[in-house]
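Hey, resending since the last one bounced:
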Amino acid sequence: GTIPAKDRYLSLNYTTCSSGTPAGLIEMNVSDDLKIFPNPSDGLLYIQTQENTNAPIYVSIYNYIGHAAGKYIVTTSSHAIDLSSYSKGIYVIKAETKKKNYLPIKLVVQ
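The structure tokens again:
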């Protein structure tokens, strides 16, 4: 069955986030209209969208135990997030708009 969006958001896990997505990808197409890259990252993480920028994209980054490491609001078609203060490791990125939830993805910070 399908997991309701509110439950996916609260119970992120590596099985959900990493299915079929090798960590070595340079660019991750979360969907046709949202790209997050590079992955792995050692500094800046870029988010590009073709979504209407009048509708912000809410991006949350969680550490390996599910605690929020950062929350961002993307209001432009190209946005950079500075990851230099993040510890090395595996994180999960969750992106959503008021109308759409994107599948979570695994992010490696080097």
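The radius of gyration is 13 Å.

Sorry for the duplicate.
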